Amino acid sequence: MADTKFLEEVNSRRTFAIISHPDAGKTTITEKVLLFGNALQKAGTVKGKKSGQHAKSDWMEMEKDRGISITTSVMQFPYNNSIVNLLDTPGHEDFSEDTYRTLTAVDSCLMVIDAAKGVEQRTIKLMEVTRLRDTPIITFMNKCDRDTRDPIDLMDEVEDVLNIACAPITWPIGMGKEFKGVYHLLRDEVILYSTGQGHTIQEVRIIKGLDNPELDEVLPLHADDLREEMELVVGASNEFDLEMFLSGELTPVYFGTALGNFGVDHVLDGLTEWAPKPLARIAKERVVEPTEEEFSGFIFKIQANMDPKHRDRIAFMRVCSGKYEKGMKMLHVRTGKKVSISDAVTFMAGDRSAAEEAYPGDIIGLHNHGTIQIGDAFTLTESLKFTGIPNFAPEMFRRIRLQDPLKQKQLLKGLMQLSEEGAVQVFRPLRSNDLIVGAVGVLQFEVVVQRLKSEYKVDAIYEGINVATALWVDSDDDQKMAEFEKKAYDNLALDGSNNLTYVAPTMVNLNLAIERYPAVNFRKTREH
Ligand code: GDP
């Protein structure tokens, strides 16, 4: 039996990520969340678009130049009686697979929607990913201080487009300049909003009970409408149901304004109360429970040059079970080597500090000198392989070529390492010496060229190439597979880990191939 302190630590963890379309307000919410976590004295320094300051999580010049965050960083802070881990996901239009993989390391997600715009395309895509594991979703309708769409329409859209039931927890009173606050359905409280307090934790005025005459005094123009509307809303919408939330079938919905720092604390209250404590993780061999005392964890992301002074690489590990203690010995399962970890980093409040200990649900960073790969498991002694950490079929392709042809070996080495990290995918056609780079977002191409230059001292350029998609291929039927490999030779390539892929010049070509070789599986994801 695990000891009580350990169980308390495990059960206090809440590990989540924000999913949203660019500009919906993810960065602003992160600032306010950290403000509540007392992590920042004054909100407004995470991205610092306006102030010109940059948070510790920004790591590359390129990011600073563009004021965007390409990489995932991790923030930990206490809230209520919980320890909250917020994993940041890139918000820019061009994003990498890191976003997807980060979602494998969390136990719940906060979905942020711009209430003036409704459900947008990136949100749809990210929701699809969370569906792979039925991750519980909390919804925040942001920017209520602007003219928004009708809240009932917004919820209908979430239900129809994202196929998840909505249960309003708070309900907006007015909108835009007339935004007065929210009614909290579960607490039966009206919480009043006052403008101009976005940078502080507000002293809010609360009116207890919808029937309270105080409401008519304070909101004479809204009180009766609100009462009527709430009757309608309660009748027409779902009640919150914890089990349905935990199985990803229903989302609690909150309204507010991140910029005005109103409503974010309601979300955090819901998150700490309802969101799951660290969930079990599935390994090929067995299910790993967070309450097990033996240590285990998996790598979901590798990031280079986080700290320009160190130029090191950090492998991000989600702790799945047991306790990490400074200096402990772990088994790096893939290599079979025992390693002593004395300098793992944690991400308390956006700053990196030496981790003394970490518990299931926490993220720690291991210094990586090229031996750690995405998907790797670390354990005390057991041989485990965690599943569900995917590679996604890239959607964009370019041929990469050297300025100086003598450095071909360096180029290949660099590309293979970058593909190991998951920064990009590399394909080597069987029939030629071409190197094809595949990415999920355009920005990845730029990052790769920049890193090849700074870390491998090679100048590379891209050329267009006629590739529509590359899918991983395999078959249970060895004979049929051999036949396929012979006939489709011109379209086959090896990826960075020597897995066979089918590189299709057009979708028509792909569809023909799928028809012609029914015994062959064409896969859009490959597990590490
Ligand atoms: P991200 O791209 O999702 O990280 O979005 P940001 O947090 O950077 O927000 C995008 C823009 O919307 C910024 O100009 C914010 O100041 C603005 N914004 C964020 N939240 C609100 C809000 O509640 N109300 C209003 N009016 N603007 C907001």
Question: What do these coordinates show?
Answer:
- There is one protein chain.
- With 528 residues, this protein is an alpha+beta fold.
- It has 14 helices and 33 strands.
- The strands form eight sheets. It has an eight-stranded antiparallel beta sheet with strand order 28-25-27-26-30-31-29-32. It has a seven-stranded mixed beta sheet with strand order 2-3-1-4-5-11-6, with helices on both faces. Strands 18-17-23-14-15-22 form a six-stranded antiparallel beta sheet.
- Helix 11 (408-421) packs across helix 12.
- The longest helix has 15 residues, at 442-456.
- The chain is globular and about 80 Å long.
- It binds guanosine-5'-diphosphate (GDP).
- Guanosine-5'-diphosphate is lined by residues 20, 22-28, 91, 142-143, 145-146, 257-260.
Task: Report helical residue fraction.
Answer: 25-40%
Q: Could you name the ranges where pLDDT drops below 50 across 5 or more consecutive residues?
A: 40-72
Q: Quick check: average pLDDT?
A: 86
Indicate the structural class.
alpha+beta
Strand elements, count:
33
Q: How can the largest sheet be summarized? A: 8 strands, antiparallel
Keywords: Cytoplasm, GTP-binding, Nucleotide-binding, Protein biosynthesis
Pfam families: EF-G_D2, GTP_EFTU, RF3_C
Subcellular location: Cytoplasm
Protein name: Peptide chain release factor 3
Question: How are the secondary structure elements laid out?
Answer:
Layout: H1 4-12, E1 13-20, H2 26-36, H3 61-66, E2 74-79, E3 82-87, H4 97-102, E4 108-114, H5 121-131, E5 137-142, H6 151-162, E6 165-168, E7 170-173, E8 181-184, E9 189-192, E10 206-208, H7 213-218, H8 223-236, H9 242-246, E11 250-255, H10 264-274, E12 281-282, E13 287-288, E14 296-304, E15 313-321, E16 324-325, E17 328-332, E18 337-341, E19 345-346, E20 353-354, E21 357-358, E22 363-368, E23 377-379, E24 390-392, E25 396-402, H11 408-421, E26 425-429, E27 436-439, H12 442-456, E28 460-464, E29 469-475, H13 478-487, E30 492-494, E31 500-504, H14 507-516, E32 520-523, E33 525-527
Parallel strand pairs: 1-3, 1-4, 4-5, 5-11, 6-11
Antiparallel strand pairs: 2-3, 7-8, 8-9, 9-10, 12-13, 14-15, 14-23, 15-22, 16-21, 17-18, 17-23, 19-20, 24-33, 25-27, 25-28, 26-27, 26-30, 29-31, 29-32, 30-31
Helix pairs in contact: 11-12
The chain binds guanosine-5'-diphosphate.
Domain Tr-type G: 11-279
Pfam families: EF-G_D2, GTP_EFTU, RF3_C
Organism: Psychromonas marina
